Amino acid sequence: MKEIGIGMIGYKFMGKAHSHAYKDLNMFFPDAPVPKMNVICGRNEEGVRQAQRQFGWDNYATDWRQLLDRDDIDLIDINAPSDAHKEIALAAAASKKHLFCEKPLALSLADAREMLDAAEKHGVKHMVGFNYRFAPAVQLAKKLVDEGRLGKIYHFRAWFLQDWILDPSFPLVWRLQKEVAGSGSHGDLGAHIIDLAHFLIGDMTEVIGMNETFVKERPIPSAMTGLSAKSSDSSAKGPVTVDDATLFMSRFACGALGSFEATRFAAGHRCTNSFEINGSKGSVKFDFERMNELQVYFTDDAEDVQGFRRVVATDPAHAYMDAWWPAGHTIGYEHTFIHEVLELMHALEEDRQPVPNFADGVKCQQVLEAVDLSIAERRWVSVNEL
Amino acid sequence: MKEIGIGMIGYKFMGKAHSHAYKDLNMFFPDAPVPKMNVICGRNEEGVRQAQRQFGWDNYATDWRQLLDRDDIDLIDINAPSDAHKEIALAAAASKKHLFCEKPLALSLADAREMLDAAEKHGVKHMVGFNYRFAPAVQLAKKLVDEGRLGKIYHFRAWFLQDWILDPSFPLVWRLQKEVAGSGSHGDLGAHIIDLAHFLIGDMTEVIGMNETFVKERPIPSAMTGLSAKSSDSSAKGPVTVDDATLFMSRFACGALGSFEATRFAAGHRCTNSFEINGSKGSVKFDFERMNELQVYFTDDAEDVQGFRRVVATDPAHAYMDAWWPAGHTIGYEHTFIHEVLELMHALEEDRQPVPNFADGVKCQQVLEAVDLSIAERRWVSVNEL
Amino acid sequence: MKEIGIGMIGYKFMGKAHSHAYKDLNMFFPDAPVPKMNVICGRNEEGVRQAQRQFGWDNYATDWRQLLDRDDIDLIDINAPSDAHKEIALAAAASKKHLFCEKPLALSLADAREMLDAAEKHGVKHMVGFNYRFAPAVQLAKKLVDEGRLGKIYHFRAWFLQDWILDPSFPLVWRLQKEVAGSGSHGDLGAHIIDLAHFLIGDMTEVIGMNETFVKERPIPSAMTGLSAKSSDSSAKGPVTVDDATLFMSRFACGALGSFEATRFAAGHRCTNSFEINGSKGSVKFDFERMNELQVYFTDDAEDVQGFRRVVATDPAHAYMDAWWPAGHTIGYEHTFIHEVLELMHALEEDRQPVPNFADGVKCQQVLEAVDLSIAERRWVSVNEL
Amino acid sequence: MKEIGIGMIGYKFMGKAHSHAYKDLNMFFPDAPVPKMNVICGRNEEGVRQAQRQFGWDNYATDWRQLLDRDDIDLIDINAPSDAHKEIALAAAASKKHLFCEKPLALSLADAREMLDAAEKHGVKHMVGFNYRFAPAVQLAKKLVDEGRLGKIYHFRAWFLQDWILDPSFPLVWRLQKEVAGSGSHGDLGAHIIDLAHFLIGDMTEVIGMNETFVKERPIPSAMTGLSAKSSDSSAKGPVTVDDATLFMSRFACGALGSFEATRFAAGHRCTNSFEINGSKGSVKFDFERMNELQVYFTDDAEDVQGFRRVVATDPAHAYMDAWWPAGHTIGYEHTFIHEVLELMHALEEDRQPVPNFADGVKCQQVLEAVDLSIAERRWVSVNEL
């Protein structure tokens, strides 16, 4: 069985999700190459040591450059904060390491392109972490589109709604600072639904957006961990420099009309990552809070029993599910990462590019920036302008 | 256009629902015979006069016997309290009036049978008010069963859940008194789901039940109106003499297993009249709180898109719906009565028995009493024992 | 009891809905003034005679001008095709008749304003037929917003999805011809959700839209009736001159971001008229296909039981519902018109303007045209430009 | 950190679920004692060797008796077929090994009691595998009951619906043979909902049931694996000796009425493990196919916003969830086992009995047999009779 040596940079939310995926992969997909959890890397030694033990890595490091010289590392997994992605990726590619980078690929389209170019130049494989593609219900949607079972696509609408910063006293964590996060809801949540649109129905040609920062100042936190942070009542305040919400409309190359909304101000929505596709022969609806389900409608059902079907995508007929539990036994968020890593391992074994890869990351970044430009200039922007 | 002269006895909840049905029928079903709203009858003159004006009847009466002598009355509509049904029906049949009686047909099986016998002896038409049959989504369920599209039926489960007497301070209204109401949840709610079972999958052969009166004493109301009543804090209390909840299991002649529950103690359920049928080729689910919808599942759907379809039964392909609004424009509770009256008018025009008729009322009463007997004697009771 | 003499022009879909509302109003709202169904008017004598009998009007006419001279007519109800609204309204106002006009008020903003001006000049009352406001669940949403129970509003998103012209062989009915209908999905469906936005959270300041006609030619029908029409296979084709779908984004005066979509190409959606409002203290969601329900979320619910509540708005605590049936017994589409007419009758009795009135119709038209302008000029348009 | 040496007997469906739980436990619950995956045992050497490697065990064995002598084994995990439970448990207890046994504890109540007695006599800890208790949404239901937030409980209804043997050509696997499985739907599915009832609202006092085997003969399979098996068309047939469906009613010590149904003949239901509890102050509803959700209703909500709340039990306020992902990121079936093992490890560390333990297994078996007796004798059976 082929083994792939992994060096992972970052050990917080995504670091945990990736580690778990490596750890569990071969128990459920025994024929996949084995990801060897060699080195986990983080700047804070205490933190990374604890993560090493807890997540099951063989070694840890505090300087990511150390990983590039090791022969036992074939792949660099980059899930450090977004502002560090580019430097690491360029160096790793130069060291002939394959790349697995969390989204957003970079803080700018230019950087993303530079990363893609570097990966191509050095002939390494590259993957970007759009994990939601790997929910079996999303795979089913893709299959229905690809097989023509929804016909010609007219509409794609998607919204990613959260509410974790609704409280104005929630502190100014790094995700609310442009210089670290690059973007707010747009880059964090919007990126996912843009990628799903690309995955499911193809490229967009033009966009126009709007955004807003509803709460313009927030308490500066004394300490930050992951998504959460504490602030005292006496905290000084600092400016929120990213968008709280971004909406945009688009046209797709296939002729469909697109509608997108990403917000962290939708009370009651913890993680509503939803899309709907309407075609000439049918429609599908997905909501990540019920990630095992796809609502499916066909126009050619018998006249008296037409209706959206609630397909619980846990049957053997659904992607990945024969590796898990009997039908009706659902899986969760973390499984999307296992399937993602499965694709990555198989691609490396087969010496092909994994999907989605940096080209998909670039394409997503291109739309993100096209939307930002359309907001800045209050006009429709062709995606090809960028 | 044929006209049918109506004399209606009772003017409360059901009296209003029936009046409305007569009033609206021909606007939406212009080819149906015309129910002439001749006389409405009630014991309280002030009350019945107001109802006459409000509901649109030509005349009123305070003694129901007066209706039997009138030539302009072809049909007696009986929706007075249950303890009055039998006497009226027997007299009306003897006067050669057709009969439309609300459920429960009578306070006992013996009485119900006497009513059926009288109607048959005098050769009059007779209908019983199981209105839920007439929801288009229920009609669709029936159609799917009859056409064999669900295959052999294995399971029928139904529950009618309400919560209007959950509060122990809710007063002792007539529906909680055995001598007037005959029965509690069992006869009021259970009767409906028993009838739906008969309608949808046929006869039961044996039953066993259990029941309970959770709140055994309630304040005696100073005044009662319809379902509601007021009681003062200083009210004396009286015993509740009917069941708050009745459950039973049954076997059907077709081989299916039945499960039934009727309760007024299900917090959060205002009117959850639900059933599910599981067959060898498919299943259906219905909930009256979403009465325009039927959930439908077929085992022969393609492997990757099997799931319950949410059929909104408002298309032209669904019973009655071409008479109403465009697809997707829903109808409500009162429409079940309009469809019921449509069947009644057509049956009278065509000189045939309407369905459901007193035979269905008797059959329902037979099951109700079989269940009561099974509770009293703590044993399985064959429906044919009664 | 006060009586209001009605003359109604138009007798198709809306004519039926209005007639029914007049007919049923006082049965359920006996204290409301009585709408006297005096004259129904239509150009086709056979058709209008049948409607007169079927809907219960005392007289019929084929020339709407005849209605203006009658003393027994206080109110002119205009539900003729949209291109006839203005001429009738101006003449009726000049004749001192009160006005009840279906939406869209007119084919253009200029016309709509002229109608409002005329009504004001002649001192008559005027109402516009935005019936969806009158669903009890929508009224509940309004109440929650007005009482501050949702806090500051951040997001309003709405979509009105239908699928009745999805089939390219569906014929070129009048609703698909700009000169008669004025607009396609935008004016037909979009108008309703724009009005709901105005009703629920107030005015918009700027908009930008996009639209598409997916099927550009359709068979010319041999005969048209209401929404449906027949075409033979050999039918000649004509151009569809209205939009199949229109989307737009907006900003509200209250600071909220808006997202709107109206389409007739959403397979599986017969009549999905939906909106969601997200505020700082809570959210609500509505879907007309389940019109008796409102999903409600409050941020101040106890931490462990936060979630969208499925409120079945049929309790006595909900608008209008004490006039109907016991809790849990749902109502349907046509009831929105009864409540609308209730408002109209009460307003006339109380000598005040009904709500919504022509000013609301103008405001809606203003947004519709602002969106159209934004599409034509591919730019954000301030609503005040128009 | 304390370590617990594990020896596990069985390596199929449950063996995989348990192995995964041991494997993942400390990654998400780093403070829990460490389950050392020492030896996995199965009769088929090839099979168990593969499982050893795939699941991550240090050693394997083919004779379970070998495990009892090992000093590095503190706990015997028994998930072999049900007919082997007793012998292993008795021997293991005698060897002073703690016990973790899958449900059903044994093939008979007598055997189950013997197992409990042995465990108590030898002073070992014992757990039984009722994993569904450990879904966070189920834990929330338990919390609401225990804190009195649902008030006095009136109704408990539960159904466990599957459809995997609906096809009559599905072969005669071991789960359909009484001598191996002990029972059909009743022991397999019914056992789970009986245990949930015990967990949530306490003991039952009397029961009456009914059951059926709809398909009485099935093809004898050539080979069996887990839940699935293949049969050729020419297969000989053998008798199905267990129930396809079992229903029963019950009374609870707390005064509630119970209704239970377990079936493998409910088309469209892959794994609908559902319950509803109605109390004087509120209700809850659960469906395992949406295992992250609990529907919750409170009678003391404001009058105009009463409704079932869809609580997505993934907030930090919900049991276990602070160990997983951010709010709204759901978990799946396998997580119930991780939580179960967490309880087991903590109990061993704290030198207390885990919950649920063999006493719960006995209690469940007692109800199962009481139901079977009630079916055999067609009468109500007091649980204490057994």
UniProtKB/TrEMBL annotation, chains A, B, C, D:
Coiled-coil regions listed in the entry? none
Keywords of the record, alphabetical order, are: Oxidoreductase
- Annotated Gfo/Idh/MocA-like oxidoreductase N-terminal domain residues: 5-130
Q: Domain GFO/IDH/MocA-like oxidoreductase, which positions?
A: 138-284
Pfam (any one): GFO_IDH_MocA
Question: What is this protein's record name?
Answer: Gfo/Idh/MocA family protein
